[in-house]
Amino acid sequence: MRKTPKTLIYLLLSLLLTQNLLALEISHSVDDGKFLTNRAVYLEPTQKLILKFDVKNAKSIKWYQIIPDTSKFYKNANHPWEKDAYKWVGYGKIDYNRVEIKPFRDKTKVELTQKVLEANRPATNCFYNSKLGSFWFEAEAKLKNGKVVRSQGIRNVGKKGLSPKVLRVSYMLDHSYIGYLTTFFNVPGIFGSMPYQSRNYIGVDCADVLVATTKIMNKEENKVNYNVEMLTKMLKIKAKFKIENGTPDRELRWGEDFNRGDFIAVNGTPDGIYYHIGMLYEDKNRNGILDAKDTILNAGSDSLNIVDLNSGAFIGSVAILENKDAR
């Protein structure tokens, strides 16, 4: 008896899997508007969002949230403190968890709320933000005939990270530059991230997240891999000074010497190169003066988070850079 070639067996198995695994998009409606199938939706926390997975003859439906593990350090290049600093080492593998949203089980239409997002907070992830930032979703339906219908999801992870075809919901503070920057909460920090990764909310580092925010807000593509030193040469320097224990060595006033949304870059290397950058976020103690209690939106080895000026990330010689996009 003639043996069946292995390639033919693999082809038959592939066809069988294809017949039993069908694809369908999750659609979404904001404030009771028309249902759309865009792969990303931007909205403010006060807006109503309905997700729909309209599958006919479904025996059961499950909804999942895909959560990147932002408690870990990821890198495409060596960190500054490692041997061969800044050397490209290849795309770092990002870890994701798929968590079922149990209250959504067997529902075709569901309303996404902050309560739902908070319920899925990872126990070991201090950077998870349930109010602002980006969230990814997958739906799966088992039909009465045994076939399975799924949206793009956890299986769509390539070497660069989660596919941008997976539905992303991005909650923003508002429609300003700062608001768009807040959509990067929950995105993994990747040292040496590439424009494709930052533009598609796969991963960011300190400079890429600031540039990607501008590009996304202005609906532009980003083909240049900017670093901190490049930004210090491109943007107007409004002030230079030193910070020790979170305290500047000169008085600088919010709204006069600099504005909310301007960038702050730190230069702590022997060769005088700026190596880290963040965005001035809030005069937290409302005294009008830049001091240790004031906050910065900061990404780097960690994902985007809010830090005090005295956190240690901005010690040494610093420069404030004008960010016209925040006006």
Report what the structure shows.
- By secondary structure, the chain is α+β, with helices and mostly antiparallel strands.
- It folds into two domains: 6-175, no CATH class; 228-326.
- Helices cover 15% and strands 31% of the residues.
- It contains six helices and 21 strands.
- Strands 1, 3, 5, 7, 9, 10 and 13 form a seven-stranded mixed sheet that branches. A seven-stranded antiparallel sheet has the order 16-15-21-17-18-19-20, with helices on one face.
- 34% of the residues are buried.
> What percentage of the residues does DSSP assign to strands (E)?
25-35%
Major beta-sheet overview? 7 strands, mixed
How many structural domains in the coordinates?
2
Instruction: Write down the secondary-structure element order.
Output: HEEEEEEEEHEEEEEHEHHHEEEEEEE
Which regions are unreliable across 5 or more consecutive residues at pLDDT < 50?
Answer: 9-20
Set down the secondary structure blueprint.
Layout: H1 6-20, E1 21-23, E2 27-30, E3 40-43, E4 49-52, E5 58-68, E6 74-75, E7 96-100, E8 109-112, H2 114-119, E9 133-143, E10 148-150, E11 157-158, E12 161-162, E13 167-171, H3 177-181, E14 190-191, H4 195-199, H5 206-217, H6 228-234, E15 237-244, E16 247-248, E17 263-267, E18 274-282, E19 295-298, E20 305-308, E21 316-321
Parallel strand pairs: 1-10, 3-13, 6-14
Antiparallel strand pairs: 2-4, 4-8, 5-7, 5-9, 9-10, 9-13, 11-12, 15-16, 15-21, 17-18, 17-21, 18-19, 19-20
